[in-house]
Each structure stands twice: as C-alpha cells, then as structure tokens.
Amino acid sequence: MPTPDSTYLVDSSIYVFRAWFTLPASILDAEGNPANAAYGFTDFVYKLLEQEKPTRIGFAFDESLTTSHRNEIFADYKANRESAPPELKHQFQLCRRFLRAIGIAEFGSDRYEADDLIGTLARQEREQGRRLVIVTGDKDLAQLIHDGDLWWEFGKDKRMDIKGIAKQFGVRPDQVADQLAIAGDKVDNIPGVPGIGMATAAKLLRKFGTVDNLLSRIPEIADMKVRGAKRLMTLIDEHQDTIRLSRQLTDIHLDAELPKDLELEPQAPADENLEAMFEALGFSPERRRRWQTLLQKMHG
User: What is the pTM of this model?
Assistant: First the structure.
C-alpha cells in the first residue's frame, strides 16, 4: 500500500481520453470551445489529490504519435492510431495549463513517450528510497513495478502489486516487456508471433526466463509439455527477427531526458494564475470553492 513517502506518477492521457468519450460535448469553456475532457480530467485530479494527499506527484503526457524514438526503430509503431482532433488537442493543453496553475508538475517530450518519462522518474525516485504508485490503465507500465510499488487503474480502482501482476499476466513484472514482444500488442501496433498470445508467451517465459534465453534454446521448445509444442518451436524460430524488433519497442526507457526544473513536490499556486484558469474553463463558483478549499488544505 502507498506510504507517506510514496511518489505518484500519472499516465495522464487515458484519463483525458476517457472524459472526452464519456462526458457530453455540450460542456464548454469560457470561449465556447468543448471542455468535456478538461472537466473530466480536472475532476479526476481533484479526486486523486483529495483521496491520496500525495507529497510527490507528477503527470506525464504524450506529445506526438509520430516522433517517438520508437518510430525510428519501427516506422509503423502506433500507425493504427488516428491523431487527436483539434478540439481535443486544445483540451489537452487546457489540462496541462490547469496542472501548472495548481502547482502540480506536468511534463512531456516529443522524443520519449509518457511511459519512458514515468520509467525514468521511477528509477530516480526509487534510488532515493521512495515507493511508487503508477496511476495508469496501461499494461506496459506493469514492468516498472518493484517490491512495495503499486500499479493502479484509478477509474476502476484496480490495484496490482508484484503478486497481482504475476497473477494477472502469468509472469513477473520484469518479464512483461518480453511477454509483449512475443505476443505483440495491437494497441501500439507492435508485431508479435502470429498465433501466440499472452498466455502462451507466459508459459515460454516461465520456462526460459527471458527472450534472449528463449531464442538461444529454441530446440528445447519442442520438448515442452504444451499442446502443439513442435509447432510453437517452429513459430518462434521463424519469427526471431520480429521478436527482437518488438523487444526494442516494448522496453520502457529509464534514462529519458527530463525537464531540468521538474519538481514533484506540489507548489503553492499563485492566486492570479489559478483565477485565470478558473475563468478560462468557465468553472462555476461551487467548483472553484472546492478547488480552493483543497489547495488550502494541501498547502496549509
């Protein structure tokens, strides 16, 4: 469970998209633009801050579908995804401006994805002896969980520690990237071995440990006590290059470049910035009071 010195790292985009798809487009900001995603996201932030009272927290955002370092490795990475429409891009900026206005760290990169920024911060925070709470709905981030950490899908209140991840995926957190490299990931357009899913990939990794060990001992696959073991061996043998390529895509970087002035401890907001943001979003007096009360509690 989270401790007072836990660091919360939020994979933000899922919570913006979720609000965009679930709240009515009739919600508008002060300029008459759609604000449903921004309203839903700020409500999520409010609940998270009020419930958890984090002393260290940061929100990571993805900035581009096409300029990630992974696109240099595989041009079709995430090619199945459409770019966000202009009205949603505008709301992403509103969400980030709101976080800055309330004194909470937000960050992104045109080269590294939110996963990599979270992974890098996770490494740095862990080196300082802190436990981590990764707030996300993305299975990829399960690979970052160490003993004492938590993977948490806030909207569904689904929490997984190391044991929970092993139960969910059939492998240890440090094997998740290997599992995804074998099975592929349709969400990110990462190719896998045709006909091999997450469960079979887990069986292979429980025996061989890692992708590198698996590929160095391919003939032994035929002797496994699984249905179609010889066919499985042939599939792995024929798709070695695909597995190696995919493994480069599924690995979360732990040394991404971060903003130099990044401060994960919440900062007391400037009143004028806060009021300007409330005005821009067209917040009601009641919604403003709720936020002001919460921020006062946070900063004494």
Answer: 0.95
